[in-house]
Amino acid sequence: MARKTIITGDDSLDDFEEPRRQFPVGVDSFSNVPSDEDALLRPTRMFDMVGQRAVYERIEIAVQAAQKRGEPLGHILFDGPPGLGKTTFATCIPRELGVDFQIANGATMRAPKDIVPYLTNAQENSVLFVDEIHRMQKTVEEFLYPAMEDFRIDVTMGEGVNARTLNIPLKPFTLIGATTRTGLISAPLRDRFQMHEHLEFYSEDELAEIVRRNAAKLHTKLDDDAAYEIASRSRGTPRLANNRLRWVRDYADAKADGVVTSEVARDALKMQGIDENGLDGQDRRYLETIWRVFQGGPVGVEAVAHTMSVAPDSLEDEVEPFLLRSELLVRTPRGRRLTARGLQILGIEVDPIEFGSSGRDDKPSLFNF
Ligand SMILES: Nc1ncnc2c1ncn2[C@@H]1O[C@H](COP(=O)(O)OP(=O)(O)OP(=O)(O)O)[C@@H](O)[C@H]1O
Ligand SMILES: [Mg+2]
Q1: Which of 212, 233, 239, 244 does the annotation list as catalytic?
Q2: Which of 212, 214, 245, 260 would you call most buried, defined as having the most Cβ atoms within 10 angstroms of its Cβ?
Q3: Do 204-271 and 281-355 fold alike per CATH?
Q4: Which overall architecture, per CATH, does domain 281-355 show?
Q5: Which residues, 6 or more positions from 205, have their beta carbon under 8 angstroms from its beta carbon?
Q6: What's the topology of domain 5-198?
Q7: Which ligand is nearest to the CA of 51?
């Protein structure tokens, strides 16, 4: 049975007569990929990408198969913490395929009419990239199901006895979704993606390679030790490696004749409050708050966020993933809890036996009150 989407109020027939009228300028080209220095450092082709080998190889196979068959690539969902390469993959894939590309953002998809222009403008086998797809409204999500499955949208116009459904065929296309919050994606939407790729933090070697390549792009002299110094302080994240490289370059230009040695890199990053573990002021403040105010936890993330006057979402999306991966913090059924390692980083000495070696579980300990 055809799925019907009722479009009411503002979303009337008028909205569908000339969908191109609403189409944001430049979305059918690469022109709305950010054009600042970030764009200079962002790989434009897949072979320029460093790391994420398992994901890379699976995508490469899917791209080659789609090209051989002359069919659209299956829909792909990328998830993972910010700055690990979701947008980079999403922008490189259409270039590999040699197809058109549009970018949309889930946060602006409040009603089906918001996504209709993107769908009706999608060229044969082209890619539609929806960033922050978890922020799309439920009605838009449901409207997308037949578009993803059968390349068709069903629009119901009018109300009551005058209602009629219009089936609009679409050209076969590929939807690429990106999210930092895979848990917020409903199962029906998730299941409509043929590939679900999770991006992991990068190794120090991979980040050092990114730093070396980007130093060359920025015409900065940097030795190997300095590349590792920056890499080891970048929280496993290429975006941070790039930001730190740019700061180190500025520092070297101002203080060291533009030459980046490991000592220059260390001094520059220390000045920004980044320690030898790559933690910045916000990371340490988070760990310190759990220790000082909540006696090491367990504590709910909202309580910590309110104490720090930051949004719980930004703690969960930007701060916690690396702290969890580094085993400085654990999530227990009763909330966040510092590990012995987390305390060690803060310079706090505790008896590891009494504290519980890594805090993997929520077993009774000094800090479970
Ligand atoms: N595999 C990679 N190789 C080299 N550089 C990379 C790689 N992945 C990401 N980068 C660099 O990191 C920057 C941030 O990556 P990107 O914008 O793709 O992250 P994201 O996962 O989309 O983050 P967000 O969730 O914040 O949107 C890019 O501009 C690029 O310079
Ligand atoms: Mg992105």
Answers
A1: 239
A2: 245
A3: no
A4: Orthogonal Bundle (1.10)
A5: 231
A6: Rossmann fold (3.40.50)
A7: 1
Is-catalytic flag, 239? Answer: yes
Q: What does the chain come to in residues?
A: 369
Which-ligand-closest: CA of 86? 1
Annotated catalytic residue, options 11, 15, 131, 154: 131
Does the active-site annotation cover 42? Answer: no
Is 5 noted as a catalytic residue in this protein? no
What CATH number does the domain located at 204-271 have?
A: 1.10.8.60
Other CB atoms within a 10 A radius of the CB of residue 55 amount to 20
Identify the active-site residue in 42, 86, 266, 337: 86
Neighbouring CB atoms inside 10 A of 369's CB total: 9
Q: Which residues line ligand 1 (CB under 6 A)?
A: 38, 41-43, 49-52, 82-88, 178, 180, 210, 238-239, 242
Q: Please tell me whether residue 45 adopts helix, strand or coil conformation.
A: coil
178 φψ region: left (φ > 0), alpha (ψ -120 to 50), beta (else): beta
Pure H helices in 133-232:
138-150, 187-191, 204-217, 224-232
The tens digit of pLDDT for each residue in 185-244 reads: 899 999 999 999 999 999 999 999 999 999 999 999 999 999 999 999 999 999 999 999
- How far is it, in rounded angstroms, from Cα 200 to Cα 86? 11
Q: What is the CA radius of gyration of the chain?
A: 24
**Residue whose CA is closest, atom 27 of ligand 1?**
82
Domain locations in the chain? 5-198, 204-271, 281-355
Q: For residue 33, which of 92, 114, 80, 119 has the smallest C-alpha distance? A: 92
- Strands 5-6 and 127-131 turn out to be unpaired
Residue 167's beta-bridge partner residues? 154
Q: How far apart are alpha carbons 170 and 104 in whole angstroms?
A: 17
Q: What is the DSSP letter of 88?
A: H
Residue 171 a catalytic site member = no
**pTM of the entire predicted model:** 0.83
